[in-house]
Amino acid sequence: MARGEEAASNSRMKRKDYEKELRKLQVKLCHLQEFVKAKKLRVIILFEGRDAAGKGGTIKAITEKISPRVFRVVALPAPSDREKSQMFVQRYMQHFPSGGEIVIFDRSWYNRAGVEYVMDFCSEDEHERFLELCPEVEKYIVDGGIILIKLWLEVGMEEQERRFKARIDDPLRQWKLSPMDTESYRLWYDYSRARDMMLKATSSKHAPWTLVRSDDKRRARLNCIAHILEAIPYKRVQHERVRLPKRSSKGRYDDQEALRGMEFVAERY
């Protein structure tokens, strides 16, 4: 390991410290979801960033302890021929939140400003029109009462390469490495220029971009969650303490004996 890599590794957050802080934040996320439900809030959180920037891991850290009925994750595949003929943002709008929901977009309409533009899946005119109209569309969204949070995860060139190589060597992560990923690696500077144009054109007063350094995945996850908790003003909702009722013994019988002879999964562990 080179000296710079060793120093970077040593500065990364330790797992024990990360898990301790993550639990604190996840408790707060549970309070947040109760407030969102109670007040019928509508929230959209956009996660954008380079490939291997850590979007998926951050979303998992946010959602692993809360209700999927409140926090809904949307990760759309490539558009169908029918969707390509629609207004660009149309296929995303059908996933917008109702009252009491937080929708997390794992990539969003900003595909038009990133992968579609760099890979020539859209024309120059379509790209320019998107950058021009996007702030207006987002103002309509915000004026409609939706809280819109836009997060860009920024990973460095060396760290992205390290993560890609780790995926190549790990059979549990090889599925994460697509031809689009390898092209994004090759076209680093093209994606950088696309990012710069996007941030300049679409970071507005009503819908600003917030950037997150993500070379250290653990710190990035915690910083993202802390930012979300600050961006959505909430108060703890008080509930009566849940108490289990006395189990009824009416109709009591040996319910385990009734399962004798049924086929169970083999107990290999």
Automatic annotation (TrEMBL):
GO terms for biological process: ATP biosynthetic process. It catalyses: [phosphate](n) + ATP = [phosphate](n+1) + ADP. Residues 13-239 form the Polyphosphate kinase-2-related domain. Pfam families: PPK2. Its EC number is 2.7.4.-. GO terms for molecular function: polyphosphate kinase activity. Gene3D superfamilies: P-loop containing nucleotide triphosphate hydrolases (3.40.50.300). Keywords: ATP synthesis, Kinase, Transferase. Coiled coil: none annotated. PANTHER family: ADP-POLYPHOSPHATE PHOSPHOTRANSFERASE, POLYPHOSPHATE:AMP PHOSPHOTRANSFERASE-RELATED. Belongs to the polyphosphate kinase 2 (PPK2) family. Class I subfamily. Uses inorganic polyphosphate (polyP) as a donor to convert GDP to GTP or ADP to ATP. Homotetramer. This is ADP/GDP-polyphosphate phosphotransferase. It comes from Bradyrhizobium lablabi.
